[in-house]
Amino acid sequence: MDSRAALKLGLDMAEFISLGYLEDLAETDLFHRPAAGANHINWQIGHLIKSEHEMLSGCFPGTMPPLPAGFVDRYLNTQATSDDPLAFYTKAELLAVYRAQRAATLATMSTVSDSQLDEAAPEPFRSYAPTLGAIFSLQGSHWLMHAGQWAVIRRQLGRPPLF
What we know:
The chain is globular, with a radius of gyration of 16 Å. It contains 6 helices and no strands. By secondary structure, the chain is mostly helical. It starts with a helix and ends in a 7-residue tail after the last helix. Helix 1 (3-23) packs parallel to helix 6 and helix 2 runs antiparallel to helix 6. The protein has one domain (3-156): Four Helix Bundle (Hemerythrin (Met), subunit A) (Up-down Bundle), CATH 1.20.120.
């Protein structure tokens, strides 16, 4: 197994777990907050998509499809406190945007050599992802970090544990 295959394995497992947690949740479930001040799932998904787009675009300009008009503004940190479903994308819309971004991430990763994966990431990302390989790896671990929060929400909503 080469480096790209190992990274893809991590991304695929994170997707399996994350999308599994989302599969049976209704639109209204995506706005449940597990505690005061916690972000709801809808905002978190948009944040994950926006983050992946920003990181990959910052490392590999021109490789990511553009996000829909207004997407970034809907998922700014300042929007995280809103509970208005009309201020956000629907679950189906979010997943469609996610799939387009992830396909571009995987396509970009397939073109990068092992030596490129060891190269330093651009300065804005180095404090949490020092190399280009770490940028790719972070796309899975970031989703898993949020999916851990979704596991709690699922239990609060009466859903069974999945994993």
